[in-house]
Each structure stands twice: as structure tokens, then as C-alpha cells.
């Protein structure tokens, strides 16, 4: 699953590169194209991601969001780094909707080589497969997921063997390992040679996902699989495709399938289709995981997250994200019709994300490894030059469809930005009305507010003062429970929190406890379970008679003062109305929850 995207890129990368060279390519153009692909795999995937990026983790988690929280939140708050990380994450969503479409279309286009009679059915079949893939997500992939590894291992073995079959037909193709072939082509063909990089980049579009999956599988297994199987298989297959082209194979259709003997072509197309489905599954799972991280970090509205399997925390389903991806992916497949057309739109968003990752790697080298400025600048500078070259080449794709992932990324980032700004404004507004807890309890005693048996749990955003929901409750109901537990939930910039460090509890008044619970950005809060552990902290809570109080703020535009723009308030209010209820998010028993609402002007 880790290598699904990068592993299926031979389906479309080499034919796209040759198409960009224009006309009938000569020997040196073909060898130069292969050399660029080989060294892109070496420098970007092997050196940058496998050797360097995967050495920077946030308590085992990888990916641009984990790196962002490490550098921009955990070490010290830096809004610029946070913005860079969030833009990179949004761009991954943008290109993520293209990956399933281009992969499945490329696989099924092999049927055109079997017989032209299949050509009218390739697009409809691709759309049906894509819709079916998203439609079954709610059932989880635990049962069929066990077959993913063996299928992908078979895929890499097969494409490697077919690559050897091609190399045997023209052994001199191995000279392309010399980087001079690629550099000569790049610098001797002017703008046309530079623009070919937009096609070459397709061979490493899955490298960023590889880094993000580090938290699920660990760095060591990924490195072993890459160096022992995946990387050699990719090199052999690209070399095999190049060899048969040099031997005279036609380049008008999918070169990838020309490596396969005719009698094995149909099973090969089936295997390729299954491999692309697995690659698409990894993209969908990655989108779910990244969405959960963004929610926990406060950058997206609360959404319903359903665990589809008890076997792994990564087995989750987020309905809104799933249907958004399905509509976008199916729409893109229908709109672009062929994988060749999609290749023109693919890569620009991922190349921008990789550029952002290189910037963060430079900061990590300086602040985590404590490298000197010249040493970090030289190493990160190499990555930045390569990524900037690919990004610049991909910019030429904007008018050919590259605007699609950029628009999608802009929408995702806009949602993140509005939600975060709106939440900050609500918190700031509530702080204007705080009352110290000791003063509030004295008032309760002085006014002889009746106290009833049982425990009241107040969820709050405040760390020191009286929760607004408690003030509203007394104001409206003129009653208070005997035992009060005030709880604030914080999400830290690490994926997991040890049980011993989960909660800090202080008794701020007789039978009044204030607690702060800490969760990692990969964890989901469970408040009833948390309360059971509170008793170990000396809290004499009556858990058999517990009522949970949550506040519900209805956001309205502020008429004066430092207000957010009206369009932003309206957008935030819409997202808030449609976000997951706090009771569900914190897994509260619904028949024990009291919700108190009020209007908040921001």
C-alpha cells in the first residue's frame, strides 16, 4: 500500500515523457529521458525521502503535517511554518483526486492493445470501478487489506521480470544509468527539454505519500522494501520500456503493455487494474488519516470518524471526505477521458508540496540536527533546486488542466483557514466574559444556590476560569450539582500521549476538580473512559449519576469592534452548524448530555 502510487507510475510516465519530447524521438532523446527518470528516482525518492526526510519524525509519524507540527508548533509556535505545512497538505488533496483516475484509466487502456473492440468501454468501466471503490469504503478494508501486500509484491516482481525481458532485447539501454545522458538532453534542447521534466516528475508523485505512511509501517520496513524490491523493479521496468522503444516498438499506444507477451496481456491488464485499485485505496486512506490529523489540530471542522476495524487505528472512514473524493475523481475521469489528458494536469500540486517539504527539511536540519547553516543550505539547496525545477516545469500544465488540483487545494486550504480563524475568534470572545472559579463558588454559596446529588461534568475551552456553560446553567436553572468536574481537552503536537501523562487534575474548591486532558493528533478523545481514570487521581466522582454539560455557540457577525469579515463569519457558522456534535466527538452517552446554547458575535 505504501508504494501503490509510485509503483503504478510506469503505466503512464514513460509514454508521457516521450510524448513531450515531440515527434519521433531519436536514440539520445530516448536514453536521455530514461536517464532523467532514473536519477529522479534516485535523488528525490531514495536520497531526499528515504534517506533524509524519514529521519525526521514526530514521535514516529511522518508526512508534511507531522513535520509542520514538529517545527511550527512543538518546538515553538511559528505561523509561517504552519501555513507552509497546511498549504502542502491541501495540495495533496488536490492531486489525490487525480491519482485514482489516471491510474485506473491507464490500467484499463491496456485492453485497447488486446483488441480495439474494448476502446469505447474503457472510460465507463473506469468510472464504475472508481465509484465502486469509494462506495465500499464504509465497510473498511481490514479483510481484503491483508491481500494488498502480496498482490503488490507480485506486481513489482512481474513488472521487474518484464523489464528484464525488454532489456535483453537491447542491453545498451543500461548506459542510461550515466547521468550525463539526462543532463545533455536537458541542457541541449532549450525550453522543450526543460518542459519534459513535467512528465519525468510523474515517476515520483508517490514519494510524499511514502513519507506520510511512515507512521503506519515504520521507517525500517519502508526502506527495506524500497531498496530490496520496489526501486530495482521500477528501474528494470523503465529500462525495459526504453529498450523496446529503441528496438522499434510503437509509441502511439501504452508502451508499458508492449513489454508483455501477447498471450499474457489480458491477465497483465487485470493485475494492473488490481494494483491501481490498491494504489487508489492508499490515497483514500491517506486522505482520511490526514483529515483526522487536521481535525485534531483544530484546522478542520469536527467530522464523523468511524473506526472500521479493531485491528488498526488507521482503519477509519470519514464519509464527507469519501464522497467529496468520489465526486471529484469520477468527474475528473469523465472530463479528461484519457490518461494522456490527465497526465497534463497531474503533478503540479505534488511538486509544490515537495517544494514545501524541502523548505521544512532545511529548518529541521538546522534546529533538530543542529547542522551549521552552510551544511544545511548545501544539502537542502540541492533538494530545493530539484523541486523548484520540477515545479516550474509543471507550471506549464496549468492551462492544460493543472488548474483543477490547484482549485481543489485552494478550497481545502480556505476551509482550514476559515475554521481556524473562526475558532480563534470564538475563544477570544469567550475570554472576555470569564469569571474566576473561586469568586464564582463564593457567589454560589452566598446566594444559596441549591446543590443536588450527583456529578456534573462541564466541558470548556478555558483553562483557569469558570466555564461559560456553568455560568449559563446556574443563571437559567438556579441549581448546581454537589460534585463538579471541569474538563478541558487539549490536542498536543505529537501523535500519541502516554497514559501516565494523559490528565492533570487539581481540586480548586471542595468537591470541585479542574482537569486538563491531553491527546495526540492521532487519537480520538473518549471522555467517559477518561473519567474512570480520574478516580485514580483522587476525584470522588459519582460516575453512576453523571450529567455532561456542553455549550453550543451560535455564531453571528459582530456589528462593531474587531470583527471578522462577514463572509468569513457566515462560512464559519455554516461549517459549525454542519460539524460533528461535541457529544459524538467526545463519545459522550447521549442520554446524559445537557446542551446549553447562546449566541456569540465575532
Kindly describe this structure.
- With about 600 residues, the protein is of the alpha/beta class.
- Helices cover about 60% and strands about 10% of the residues.
- It has helices at about 5, 15-20, 25-50, 65-75, 80-95, 100-110, 110-115, 120-135, 140-145, 150-170, 180-190, 190-195, 195-200, 205-210, 215, 220-245, 255-260, 265-295, 320-335, 340-345, 350-365, 375-395, 405-430, 435-445, 470-475, 525-535, 565-580, 580-585; strands spanning about 305, 315, 450-460, 480-490, 505-510, 510-520, 545-555, 595-600.
- The strands form two sheets. A six-stranded mixed β-sheet has the order 5-6-4-3-7-8.
- The model has no long low-confidence stretch (mean pLDDT about 85).
Which SSEs are present, and which pair or pack?
Blueprint: H1 4-7, H2 13-21, H3 27-52, H4 64-74, H5 79-96, H6 98-108, H7 111-114, H8 122-135, H9 142-145, H10 148-169, H11 179-188, H12 190-195, H13 197-200, H14 207-212, H15 214-217, H16 219-246, H17 255-258, H18 265-296, E1 306-307, E2 316-317, H19 319-336, H20 339-343, H21 348-367, H22 373-394, H23 403-431, H24 437-446, E3 451-459, H25 468-477, E4 480-491, E5 503-509, E6 512-519, H26 527-534, E7 546-556, H27 566-578, H28 582-585, E8 593-601
Parallel strand pairs: 3-4, 3-7, 4-6, 7-8
Antiparallel strand pairs: 1-2, 5-6
Amino acid at each position: 500500500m505504501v508504494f501503490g502510487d509510485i509503483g503504478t507510475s510506469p503505466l503512464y510516465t514513460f509514454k508521457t515523457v516521450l510524448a513531450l519530447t515531440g515527434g519521433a524521438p531519436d536514440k539520445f532523446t530516448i536514453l536521455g529521458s530514461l536517464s532523467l527518470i532514473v536519477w529522479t528516482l534516485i535523488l528525490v525518492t531514495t536520497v531526499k525521502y528515504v534517506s533524509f526526510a524519514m529521519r525526521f519524525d514526530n514521535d514516529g509519524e511522518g508526512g508534511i503535517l507531522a513535520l509542520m507540527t514538529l517545527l511550527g508548533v512543538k518546538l515553538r509556535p511559528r505561523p509561517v511554518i504552519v501555513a507552509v505545512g497546511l498549504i502542502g497538505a491541501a495540495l495533496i488533496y488536490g492531486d489525490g483526486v487525480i491519482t485514482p483516475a489516471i491510474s485506473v484509466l491507464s490500467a484499463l487502456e491496456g485492453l485497447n492493445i488486446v483488441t480495439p473492440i474494448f476502446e469505447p468501454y474503457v472510460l465507463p468501466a473506469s468510472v464504475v470501478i472508481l465509484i465502486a471503490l469509494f462506495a465500499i469504503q464504509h465497510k473498511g478494508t481490514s479483510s481484503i487489506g491483508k491481500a494488498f501486500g502480496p498482490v503488490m509484491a507480485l506486481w513489482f516482481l512481474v513488472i521487474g521480470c518484464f523489464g528484464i525481458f525488454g532489456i535483453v532485447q537491447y542491453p545498451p539501454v543500461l548506459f542510461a544509468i550515466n547521468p550525463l545522458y539526462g543532463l545533455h538532453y536537458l541542457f541541449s534542447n532549450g525550453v522543450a527539454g526543460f518542459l519534459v521534466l513535467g512528465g519525468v516528475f510523474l515517476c515520483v508523485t508517490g514519494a510524499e505519500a511514502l513519507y506520510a505512511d511512515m507512521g503506519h509501517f515504520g521507517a525500517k520496513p519502508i526502506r527495506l522494501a524500497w531498496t530490496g524490491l520496489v526501486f530495482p523493479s521500477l528501474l528494470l521496468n523503465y529500462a525495459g520500456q526504453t529498450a523496446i522503444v529503441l528496438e522499434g516498438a510503437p509509441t502511439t499506444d501504452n508502451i508499458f503493455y508492449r513489454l508483455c507477451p501477447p498471450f499474457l496481456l489480458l491477465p497483465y491488464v487485470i493485475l494492473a487494474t488490481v494494483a491501481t485499485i490498491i494504489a487508489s485505496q492508499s490515497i483514500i486512506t491517506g486522505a482520511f488519516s490526514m483529515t483526522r490529523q487536521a481535525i485534531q489540530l483544530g484546522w478542520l471542522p469536527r467530522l464523523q470518524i468511524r473506526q472500521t476495524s479493531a485491528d488498526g487505528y488507521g482503519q477509519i472512514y470519514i464519509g464527507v471526505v469519501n464522497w467529496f473524493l468520489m465526486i471529484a475523481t469520477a468527474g475528473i475521469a469523465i472530463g479528461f477521458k484519457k490518461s494522456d489528458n490527465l497526465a497534463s494536469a497531474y503533478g503540479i500540486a505534488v511538486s509544490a508540496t515537495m517544494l514545501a517539504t524541502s523548505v521544512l527539511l532545511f529548518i529541521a536540519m538546522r534546529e533538530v540536527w543542529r547542522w551549521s547553516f552552510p551544511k544545511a543550505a548545501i544539502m537542502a539547496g540541492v533538494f530545493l533546486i530539484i523541486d523548484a525545477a520540477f515545479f516550474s516545469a509543471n507550471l506549464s500544465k496549468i492551462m492544460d488542466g493543472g488548474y483543477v488540483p490547484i482549485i481543489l487545494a485552494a478550497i481545502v486550504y480556505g476551509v482550514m483557514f476559515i475554521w481556524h480563524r473562526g475558532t480563534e475568534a470564538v475563544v477570544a470572545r469567550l475570554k472576555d466574559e470569564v469569571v474566576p472559579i473561586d469568586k464564582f463558588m463564593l457567589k454560589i454559596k452566598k446566594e444559596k444556590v441549591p446543590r443536588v446529588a450527583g456529578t456534573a461534568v462541564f466541558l470548556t475551552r478555558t483553562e483557569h476560569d469558570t466555564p461559560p456553560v456553568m455560568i449559563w446553567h446556574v443563571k437559567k436553572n438556579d441549581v448546581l450539582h454537589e460534585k463538579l468536574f471541569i474538563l478541558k481537552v487539549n490536542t498536543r503536537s505529537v501523535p500519541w500521549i502516554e497514559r501516565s501523562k494523559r490528565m492533570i487534575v487539581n481540586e480548586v474548591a471542595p468537591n470541585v476538580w479542574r482537569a486538563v486532558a491531553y491527546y495526540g493528533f492521532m487519537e480520538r478523545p473518549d471522555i467517559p473512559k477518561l473519567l474512570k481514570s480520574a478516580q485514580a487521581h483522587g476525584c470522588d466522582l459519582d460516575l453512576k449519576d453523571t450529567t455532561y454539560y456542553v455549550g453550543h455557540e451560535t455564531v453571528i457577525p459582530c456589528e462593531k469592534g474587531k470583527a471578522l469579515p462577514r463572509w468569513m463569519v457566515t462560512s464559519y457558522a455554516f461549517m459549525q452548524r454542519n460539524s460533528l456534535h461535541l457529544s459524538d466527538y467526545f463519545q459522550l452517552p447521549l442520554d446524559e448530555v445537557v446542551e446549553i446554547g447562546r449566541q456569540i458575535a465575532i
